[in-house]
Amino acid sequence: MTAVVENKEALIERINYLRKKKNAVLLAHFYQRGEIQDIADYVGDSLELARRAQETDADIIVFSGVRFMAETAKILNPTKKVLHPNPESGCPMADMATVEGVLKLKEEHPDAVVVSYINTNADVKTISDVIVTSRNAVKVVKALDAKKIIFVPDQFLGSYIARQVPEKEFILWKGFCPPHFNLTPDQLLALKERYPDAKIAVHPECNTETVKIADFVGSTSQIIEFATTCDSKNVIIGTEIGLKHWLEKLNPDKNYIFPVNADYCGTIHCCDMKKNTLEKIADVLEREINEIVLPEDIIEKAKKPLDKMLEIV
């Protein structure tokens, strides 16, 4: 047990030394392992972190998240070196959307605009009209002139937005986030029986029936705001388990309850998010490997829908 603690401390010391030496910044998503969140320069959602990177004078960005997040950081910070601790840390939902499929939908619906969730790969961003996050999607879609929306890739976030913007027609790509999709209403209701005073907060990537029974639906950062400010001591959280670490640090006096599903990784657990480790962060900093490299035309085309979103919000 002592050796593990010493090894972890040595890794952290090495990471701190390397990022100072190389003028590097470490960004970590809320769903990362707790020990990574604890040493990160910034912890947040994917867009917030990419924008944070723009504000720093760092030469190197180490993005501890899944690949599309590191790509977004590169798109918004093309002159910086962006390193991804584990190239195998991808996003199944992002991978469900293809350029060919989206172009086919555009041909079938020439009067529609393509609204892509930020959880898309760089190539799909290049053929999108605007990018949205789960936090700002409703506002952005309402601001668009178009009456018909092709929404990519998450059908459940898309259907949630469609319910908030009934005046527009939605064509939904049939993608989904496996961990969020597997959270059922029964799991939440069973916890509600144990904690009758608890509030339920879920991410809109959850399936529609699960979203319907929640007291609050919002992005990761919005769930944090709700969970820390609501008047209930017990809060049932319907999103990835990594958020528990951050919530408990913010407000240790509250009880944050995450559903357990023995049939799916125990909790809402993104296996890809957890593929990043302290060892891999130290390694990419040491050797400057796993750099995110995107062609200039991809960066230029993918940045336009991101800029359009930023103009609106």
TrEMBL record:
<dbReference type="GO" id="GO:0034628">
    <property type="term" value="P:'de novo' NAD+ biosynthetic process from L-aspartate"/>
</dbReference>
<dbReference type="InterPro" id="IPR023066">
    <property type="entry name" value="Quinolinate_synth_type2"/>
</dbReference>
<keyword id="KW-0808">Transferase</keyword>
<protein>
    <recommendedName>
        <fullName>Quinolinate synthase</fullName>
        <ecNumber>2.5.1.72</ecNumber>
    </recommendedName>
</protein>
<keyword id="KW-0963">Cytoplasm</keyword>
<dbReference type="Pfam" id="PF02445">
    <property type="entry name" value="NadA"/>
</dbReference>
<dbReference type="InterPro" id="IPR036094">
    <property type="entry name" value="NadA_sf"/>
</dbReference>
<feature type="binding site">
    <location>
        <position position="91"/>
    </location>
    <ligand>
        <name>[4Fe-4S] cluster</name>
    </ligand>
</feature>
<feature type="binding site">
    <location>
        <position position="270"/>
    </location>
    <ligand>
        <name>[4Fe-4S] cluster</name>
    </ligand>
</feature>
<feature type="binding site">
    <location>
        <position position="134"/>
    </location>
    <ligand>
        <name>iminosuccinate</name>
    </ligand>
</feature>
<dbReference type="GO" id="GO:0005829">
    <property type="term" value="C:cytosol"/>
</dbReference>
<feature type="binding site">
    <location>
        <position position="46"/>
    </location>
    <ligand>
        <name>iminosuccinate</name>
    </ligand>
</feature>
<keyword id="KW-0411">Iron-sulfur</keyword>
<feature type="binding site">
    <location>
        <begin position="203"/>
        <end position="205"/>
    </location>
    <ligand>
        <name>iminosuccinate</name>
    </ligand>
</feature>
<keyword id="KW-0479">Metal-binding</keyword>
<dbReference type="GO" id="GO:0051539">
    <property type="term" value="F:4 iron, 4 sulfur cluster binding"/>
</dbReference>
<comment type="function">
    <text>Catalyzes the condensation of iminoaspartate with dihydroxyacetone phosphate to form quinolinate.</text>
</comment>
<keyword id="KW-0662">Pyridine nucleotide biosynthesis</keyword>
<keyword id="KW-0408">Iron</keyword>
<feature type="binding site">
    <location>
        <position position="29"/>
    </location>
    <ligand>
        <name>iminosuccinate</name>
    </ligand>
</feature>
<dbReference type="InterPro" id="IPR003473">
    <property type="entry name" value="NadA"/>
</dbReference>
<comment type="pathway">
    <text>Cofactor biosynthesis; NAD(+) biosynthesis; quinolinate from iminoaspartate: step 1/1.</text>
</comment>
<dbReference type="GO" id="GO:0046872">
    <property type="term" value="F:metal ion binding"/>
</dbReference>
<feature type="binding site">
    <location>
        <begin position="117"/>
        <end position="119"/>
    </location>
    <ligand>
        <name>iminosuccinate</name>
    </ligand>
</feature>
<dbReference type="GO" id="GO:0008987">
    <property type="term" value="F:quinolinate synthetase A activity"/>
</dbReference>
<feature type="binding site">
    <location>
        <position position="220"/>
    </location>
    <ligand>
        <name>iminosuccinate</name>
    </ligand>
</feature>
<comment type="similarity">
    <text>Belongs to the quinolinate synthase family. Type 2 subfamily.</text>
</comment>
<keyword id="KW-0004">4Fe-4S</keyword>
<feature type="binding site">
    <location>
        <position position="177"/>
    </location>
    <ligand>
        <name>[4Fe-4S] cluster</name>
    </ligand>
</feature>
